[in-house]
Design a protein that fits this description.
alpha/beta; Rossmann fold; Multidrug-efflux Transporter Regulator, Chain: A, Domain 2
Length: about 200
């Protein structure tokens, strides 16, 4: 059942934007946005990699000043990266989430590849099987949490673990939420929606 038939997910409120995104909103070139930053017309912070990031507050002020609707800041698509090496479980996630037009899905069965996809795909949510064949899912969480640019990414841990010790260790690893297998479609939808309340 698509998420929209249960309850629509609210639009994502991004906290930071790239110069390219601001340029697109304003229908100008990225060079124009760089100049606005250099001349103090738009404040931006710099990432460890040397890229500009504009906070939501600064972006709103800049758009208002230039008489551009703030609606452009709202992303209607939720990007979900599914990291699961069990083919049956992966098909379940794809069936449960794949019919919703507000969701864009990417999948991998590798924790190693998940690290690369997280940086290129920039998911809002990662569905992460903790016990992967090639890498412990907690190590994947650690890598994601070590990147300041991914601090707003929600990680939904999926596990077959039953011992309270394992469950507590997974929760303490930095995940946003945890679901124990077997998982129902309703549980999955409700957990995803809870990230946007």
């Amino acid at each position: 059942m698509p998420l929209a038939t249960i309850n629509p997910i609210p639009a994502i409120k991004k906290q930071y934007y790239t110069t390219g995104q601001i340029a697109k909103f304003c229908h100008v070139s990225p060079t124009t946005i760089f100049r606005a930053i250099e001349h103090g017309l738009l404040k931006a912070s710099t990432t460890p990699g040397g890229h500009y990031r504009i906070s939501r507050g600064e972006a709103e002020g800049f758009l208002k000043k230039n008489k551009i609707s703030l609606n452009v800041l709202e992303s209607q698509t939720i990007r979900i990266l599914i990291v699961e090496d069990n083919p049956m479980q992966l098909r379940f996630f794809q069936r449960a989430l794949g019919k919703d037009s507000e969701l864009e899905l990417k999948t991998t069965n590798s924790g190693y590849e998940a690290g690369f996809l997280t940086r290129s795909f920039r998911p809002n949510i990662i569905l992460l099987d903790i016990f992967l064949k090639d890498m412990d899912g907690r190590q994947v969480v650690k890598l994601i949490r070590s990147d300041p640019e991914l601090k707003h990414t929600k990680i939904l841990a999926i596990t077959a673990a039953t011992s309270s010790k394992d469950i507590e260790e997974i929760k303490a690893s930095g995940v946003s939420a945890l679901l124990q297998k077997p998982i129902s479609s309703t549980q999955l939808h409700e957990t995803i929606k809870s990230f946007f309340k």
